[in-house]
Amino acid sequence: MNIKNRLASMSVFFLLITCSCFAQEKQLDILPGTVLVSPIGGLNDPTEFRGFSISLQSGTELTTGANTFGYSSVSLTGRWIPGSSDFGKSISILFGVADWYTPPLSIVYPSEYLTPSEQNAGSSAVGSILAGLSYKIGSRLPSNDDWGKYKSQLLDYEVKIANAPTEIEKNRLIVERNAFIWTKILRPSYKKGILEAGVIARLSTLALETDAEGLDAFESFAVGAGIFDFIEGIHFYKNFQSLQNPTRENDWALTCTLGFFLDLNDVPPVSVLGIVLGAGYYQYPNRSPILPGPPDIAPYTIRIDGTVFLSGFLRDNASRGSGIGLKFQYSVNHPLENQFQLLVIFSSDFLSSIK
Amino acid sequence: MEYRITGKKGEAANVAISVAPQESCCIIKGRAPNAAAYTQDSGQVTELGKVPLTEHFHIVFYNRPWKFQMQIGIGGQFAHSIADSSENQGLPSTTILTPDTANITVIFEGV
Fold it and tell me: Do A43 and A4 form a contact (C-beta atoms < 8 A)?
């Protein structure tokens, strides 16, 4: 794709709205970089604590015209961690609704493999109901030993706060203490390695004409050090046989995402610069030609994308990470899909807590 | 929280504080400008002074869940036992940046 075409495709613009609720994070005003990426189509953020969280993402024309299938522009997803024991807190119940995008067969198969009606059929993005489970290994909560290492310094802060001669001085010392806690105890703890694996099923559909039923098995690993965060995620999508469209039976895809995040501030609220690299292999079912002659084919597509994010710049209204990003996507077998996309993310807490 | 106990004037005003986990908890005794770290937090009996006496404690819990127990007494008799736990209050067992705090005033009244 030449530069002219790339510039033209930069006109593709979509808006992503993310609303999140984290029962205990409200006071923290933190933005883990990993929360930026959709838990459905991309990475999962395994840093969430016990409680209930929900996120809404929407976009316009996110994948129309793509020759890869997957979750599309609109999704409402939730995570519930109901347990209170160490084991219980490692289990998340995942749920939500999301659009599942199916590309038109005409951009996947040559015309001689399609009936006239299939050649004229367009893409579809239909709502699906999601439900699943995940299991986490590791914890990012600070242990009592993590706190104990700095007890003497914390005690010094508390004595100074208790003896502060004025409210202004007291508040200044509290801010200083909280920054100390963040830098020495919480931030290192939130960057401990943690692994999550799970399955999300598209249980049923919201629209009668849909043919989307499938499974998303995933794993995600996150770790960080200092001001850096790293996360990787692998998803395996498998479509089940559908009565309405039996050609989907053997669809499957394997995607991998790598995210690198850099904290731009020493204390909360923290702006984050992130680079997310993604790749996916999409396998379509084997097909015979309509007229005898050509051999059967089983087409595939390889998608590669890269996204640069800057988040946390709307701190007053969006503690969970408003941001802006630029994404470039490259697709094998379908040059028209190659494009730049400007991403805008708005985020805010809308549910204080459910205990 | 304010707690009162009545006893004979001149007798020892005693307190015993026990917190768990100790690693993530700080206890401050007194008020500005004389507040100081209180390190007798392992449940042993400490004499604060002689009745009548008023003392303030500020307890900071950085991590949840936490528990603490406080006993106050005059002479050899302990009349009050104050126990608390975050889980009993329905608080989630997770970490917070803004610590939980307890401000306690104990008043030893003499007769």
Answer: no
- Closest residue, chain B, to A51 (C-alpha): B92
Give the pLDDT confidence score for residue A337 in this predicted structure: 56
> To 10 degrees, what angle do helices A151-162 and A167-181 make?
170
Residue of A nearest to B23 (CA): A148
- What is the distance of C-alpha A254 from the center of its chain? 16
HSE value, Cβ hemisphere, 13 Å, CA-based, for A13: 5
Nearest to B96 among A24, A144, A148 (CB): A24
Burial A124-162 (b: 16+ CB within 10 A, else e): bbbbbebebebebeeebbbbbebbbebbeebbebbbbbb
| The two structure tokens encoding residue A217 | 């098995």
DSSP state of B76: T
| Number of structural domains found in chain B | 1
ipTM of the complex: 0.89
pLDDT interval class at A5 (50, 70, 90): very low
Paired sense of beta strands A13-19 and A339-348, if any: parallel
Q: Domain of B14: which CATH number? A: 2.60.40
Beta-carbon contacts of residue A162 (< 8 Å; ≥ 6 apart) = B28, B30, B31, B32, B35, B58
* Residue B82 host element (H or E): strand B77-85
Asked if A238 contacts A244 with a C-beta cutoff of 8 angstroms, the reply is no
How crowded is residue B50: how many other Cβ atoms within 10 Å of its Cβ? 14
Question: Which residues span the domain enclosing B51?
Answer: 2-110
Contact by Cβ (8 Å): A229, A192: no
Check if A144 contacts B (Cβ < 8 Å): yes
Reported as a pLDDT band with limits 50, 70 and 90, residue A72 is low
Give bridge partners of residue B18 from the DSSP assignment.
B42, B69
For A66, phi and psi rounded to 5 degrees? -75, 155
Q: Per the CB < 8 Å rule, is A181 touching B97? A: yes
pLDDT attached to residue A19: 30
**Chain centre to alpha carbon of residue A123:** 23
Whole-angstrom distance, CA of residue B85 vs CA of residue B99 = 14
**pLDDT tens digits for range B13-62:** 999 988 888 899 999 999 999 999 998 767 788 899 999 999 999 988 88
Q: Which of B37, B90, B97 faces A178 most closely, judged by CB atoms?
A: B97
Neighboring chain B residues of A86 at a CB cutoff of 8 Å: none
